[in-house]
Here is the input.
Amino acid sequence: MSQERYRRDGVLKVMRLRLNRLMPLNKTSDSLAVDAREEMREWFETALGHALGQLTSESVSRLVPPGYYRTGFQAGSACVDLLQRAEHSVFEVPPGRNRPLGDPKLAVKCSPEQLPFGARSIDLLVLPFVLDFSADPHGVLREAYSILAPEGCLVICGFNRWSLWGLRRSIEIGIRRPPWSGRFLSIHQVQDWTTLLGLELISAESLFYRPPIGQAGLLERLNFLEAAGDRWWPLFSGAYVIVVKKRAFGQSSVLEPVPGTRRRSQKPLVSALPRQAAKGRLKVVRE
Here is the structure.
């Protein structure tokens, strides 16, 4: 082989390696999901991600009903502990990674589609922005249902596509990176899936009305939009939190208005993101 040909082949090899790094080929949906969760972990360390994580943590603390949760599991990449109410907390480490997403006391290597827990073994299960980056979001919910204990709670956090966040996602130019590469699933679709599984809606909340900008100072100055948006345009929040419960066999519940409030029609509650459920205007009564 001539020196010129050797040099040419070497240059071509280097170019192929660089192209493979920029545009990896033959990646499975699982590996792409792992990469997205890892990039989401890094994004949550930015000013915008930190602000969303803080509001999400406060929302989950308000919405999860009081009770005894012996074992809690948090999937996904939110670098915020959302298992404050659980006695024992377990966090996910994505396959192929050697460190947990955050600094938990106990972590397991797994994926949301295949959770290494026995049936009915988890009392509090949190999926922070997991469904938006899963190749099989309905499968994730089925897996969550199977490991959730009777009377256990499932917390779902997601991005709202009908918002400034959804608008930025739709006009993002070039290769999208998390969170803009997420699905931004419809709230109605997520509710339909949980209803089909027999999970009961306990509460829901919309959050983050500020535009998705990265400047910490500007985000702080626009903090007043949270109260204004919650009052005037709750359907256009950047994110939402839904809490559903797995009822024990043979139990049912009905939603009754608190005395002094007007009775609402029996429409899907999440269609209006019912902050009233979180604020106590609706109560759950077991029959």
About this structure: The first strand starts at residue 69 and ends at 74.
